[in-house]
Amino acid sequence: MDQLMINAAVRPLIDGAPAVSALGWGMWRYHGDDVAAATARSMAALEAGITLFDTADIYGFGHEHGFGAAEALFGRVLKANPGLRDRIVLATKGGIQPPIPYHQRGNRLVECCEASLRRLNVDCIDLYQVHRPDLLAHPAEVAAALDRLRQQGKIKAAGVSNYTAAQVAALSAHLPFPLLSIQPEFSPLHIDPLFDGVLDQALERGLTVLTWSPLGGGNLLGDAGDERTGRVAAALDAIAIRQGATRAAVAYAWAIAHPARPIPLVGSQTPARIREAADAFTVQMTGAEWYAVLVAARGQPMP
Ligand SMILES: NC(=O)c1ccc[n+]([C@@H]2O[C@H](COP(=O)([O-])OP(=O)(O)OC[C@H]3O[C@@H](n4cnc5c(N)ncnc54)[C@H](OP(=O)(O)O)[C@@H]3O)[C@@H](O)[C@H]2O)c1
Prior knowledge:
Layout: E1 24-26, H1 35-47, E2 52-54, H2 69-80, E3 89-94, H3 108-120, E4 125-130, H4 139-151, E5 155-161, H5 165-174, E6 181-183, H6 198-205, E7 208-211, H7 227-243, H8 247-256, E8 263-266, H9 271-276, H10 287-298
Parallel strand pairs: 1-2, 1-8, 2-3, 3-4, 4-5, 5-6, 6-7, 7-8
Helix pairs in contact: 1-2, 2-3, 3-4, 4-5, 7-8, 7-10
Residues 26-29, 54, 161-162, 183, 212-218, 221, 248, 265-270, 273 line the site of NADP nicotinamide-adenine-dinucleotide phosphate.
């Protein structure tokens, strides 16, 4: 049978932190000043079985409350909800500093992380990620900062985002402990990690893969603006209709089906949509259907 194994089982990620499901929740769009509404969104993620919460110091930049706002809002949610901290794997990122744009030289990442801890109202971050590589920082410098943070108990594990496979290898060569995770953009609209070595390296090294913009930032759910998006949406809908599932659920399942077991970061801030994301765990598809989505994204058959 051509049925794909979509492994949605929970898995341990970090010692002393809750296990994670096959989905995470992202707080890039976590704006505003309303702690009750922000709490409702966070609880919707927990109700969907999601324990991995991903934020960043820069989330909020360009919006009303600016750099640090998403972390500060979540810090207020954590303070208002004692017990929530221990139910989640708290992941954040640092190292982007407008307008430089990236700064991870010297002690900078340590300072960024300490500022995140203060905004989030926590003593320790479970997963601290370098948001984008600073091309001017030697990987040994970045590794030293991450090691210092870990030795001081300020972070439990380290990861990177938007790194090439070669950049992961360079950083790992200087890091005295294994990198836990990578975070590339990956979706039926953004398929580069399948071909640029990023997912292959995750398989080789056993890296956890968190994937950003799993619905193409919402483009997959829009009115299929361009021809390619329309094609990909139609290929997802062919599976969705047969399964009685939503297009979003099929898009998440399509990513989860890869053997690197990527964890799509659900970006919605609508409680009902966050809860509905868990439908991804029930989607079934065949290998032929998975490749049909890929062919739609490539715009040409597989060689
Ligand atoms: N590492 C990086 O550089 C990087 C970059 C970007 C993002 N990220 C991470 O990835 C996370 C997700 O990114 P994203 O927000 O672009 O994810 P996404 O899931 O691709 O897009 C979410 C957007 O789609 C909309 N949407 C429309 N219909 C939807 C439906 N049926 N179900 C769910 N969403 C629907 C949402 O609107 P509503 O909110 O109105 O539902 C929201 O605006 C971020 O929060 C962040 O943690 C990381």
